[in-house]
Design a protein that fits this description.
7-stranded parallel β-sheet; 21% strand; binds N-(aminocarbonyl)-beta-alanine; binds zinc ion
Length: 468
């Protein structure tokens, strides 16, 4: 046969077009798009389904060191299994440089954890926590040349925070090397001040986490990052934007002609700070299940984030999947966690639920078009991080990374049905319309009807060119 696989009778959706067509796949790539493709070793019937570019989640945390005694709930096998079941064909986790250690060694050790352990492709970002002269002068330029072309810097967290001079130096290096920088915009000193004040006042519940990081903390850091980016003349991505106030800073930067990109996440569209109060549970720590940074805001803020999605302020919607088990001393309830919100590990699982939530609340609810959905969940991720035109769309020569999507299927999100390593989902009982039926990664079926069928090791760790 001419093709290894034919996908027949579906409606293809890209960031710009929606049209009925068959697909012919050969050697893991899209080899033909046409009216009637029949000469294939295997045929999938996609009638009644949408054929979307596979989801790319450019912000996930997998097997990342998270402090003494705390263990992230997913390794590469479980994270990519959950991602595939949720309609994704590529995820981008972070290799973290522990302070005082070599970024190069940390990155190569992290990559070794991934090799042979992935159901879908993985592309690795870096986290720069210690920009020493050796890191800026030798290690980072060498890693960028090896294909690690993007990295994240943090403006908070004891073990990760960079001061303004360090941020400027990292930005400067990225400018010279053409690398992509992601910024975690929350101000360290303001959070420390608020945290100590709250603890003195006896406010140690998980809800204290939300009080310790109000929108102004995010807004101030976003403004500072944008100003530094202007000084260095560097495009940046402000990640996990949670609030209207940080959005205003991004709009301000763009009005000045700066290239400021922005990411948001489903939690800022569907969860609120009140979730950290535990929602009527008897368990005083229940709210820890929703502790992530930045924290979800008040309900009215969700409409502002939707407006940002509709108007183009946001380029991408990622999960910021950062899974910890709840009922586990190595997770949300680590022993110190019982005394203050300060010790609850930050992050929530969401790698498998990102696409259904955004589709349901976005497309099914009439807020965004199918094409905008594809742009926000696949195409723009590929373009921002150097995966385009290999991934991120449906076209001749692209990797055959596809999700067959049933736009009418109703499902209720249940932990019991998810594939991640966490023991809960923040969206337990959340109803959605629209569901991924089949995930095809580089031409192979990796997930079908909630079952992951592709072999571990099908996914590769892929290197990237610098983004144009
Ligand atoms: O709470 C979160 N988001 N934890 C993950 C780390 C990060 O800052 O993205
Ligand atoms: Zn972050
Ligand atoms: Zn993150």
């Amino acid at each position: 046969p001419e093709f290894d696989l034919a996908v027949r009778g579906g409606t293809l959706v890209t960031a710009t077009d929606t049209f009925p067509a068959d697909l012919g796949i050969r050697d893991g790539r899209i080899a033909a798009i046409g009216a009637r493709i029949t000469d294939a070793a295997r045929t999938l019937d996609a009638s009644g389904l949408l054929v979307l570019p596979g989801g790319i989640d450019s912000h996930v945390h997998i097997a990342q060191a998270s402090g003494p005694g705390i263990v992230m709930a997913d390794d590469f096998a479980s994270a990519t299994r959950a991602a595939a079941a949720g309609g994704n064909t590529c995820v981008m986790p972070f290799a973290l440089q522990p302070r005082g250690a070599s970024l190069r060694e940390a990155t190569h050790a992290y990559r070794a954890l991934a090799e042979g352990q992935c159901h879908i492709d993985v592309a690795i970002h870096l986290i720069v926590s210690d920009p020493t002269p050796a890191v800026l002068g030798q290690e980072l330029p060498a890693l960028i040349a090896e294909g690690y072309t993007s990295f994240k810097v943090f403006m908070t967290y004891d073990d990760l925070v960079l001061n303004d001079r360090q941020i400027l130096d990292v930005f400067d290096l990225a400018r010279r090397e053409g690398a992509r920088v992601m910024v975690h915009a929350e101000g360290y000193d303001a959070i420390r001040y608020m945290t100590e004040k709250l603890e003195k006042a006896g406010e140690t519940r998980p809800f204290g986490h939300a009080l310790s990081r109000p929108q102004v903390v995010e807004r101030e850091a976003a403004h500072r990052a944008i100003s530094h980016a202007e000084l260095v003349d560097l495009p940046i991505v402000i990640v996990h934007v949670s609030g209207e106030q940080a959005m205003e800073q991004i709009a301000w930067g763009r009005e000045r002609g700066l290239k400021i990109h922005a990411e948001t996440c489903p939690q800022y569209l569907t969860l609120t700070a009140d979730h950290m109060k535990g929602l009527g549970s008897d368990d005083p720590m229940e709210g820890a299940k929703y502790v992530c940074s930045p924290p979800p805001r008040e309900a009215a803020n969700q409409a502002a984030i939707w407006r940002g999605i509709q108007t183009g302020l946001f380029d991408v919607v990622s999960s910021d999947h950062c899974p910890f088990r709840y009922d586990d001393p190595a997770g949300k309830l680590n022993p110190k966690g019982r005394t203050s919100f300060r010790w609850v590990p930050n992050g929530i699982p969401g790698i498998e639920t990102r696409l259904p939530i955004l589709f349901s609340e976005g497309v099914s609810a009439g807020r965004i078009s199918l094409n905008r959905f594809v742009e926000l969940t696949a195409t723009n991720h590929a373009k921002l991080y150097g995966l385009y035109p290999r991934k991120g769309s449906i076209g001749i020569g692209f990797d055959a990374d596809l999700t067959l999507w049933d736009p009418n299927r109703r499902e209720t999100i249940r932990q019991a049905n998810l594939h991640h390593g966490a023991d809960y989902t923040p969206w337990e009982g959340f109803s959605v319309t629209g569901w991924p039926v089949t995930t095809i990664a580089r031409g192979a079926i990796v997930a079908e009807n909630g079952r992951v069928v592709g072999p571990l090791g099908h996914g590769q760790v892929i290197d990237r060119a610098v983004s144009p």
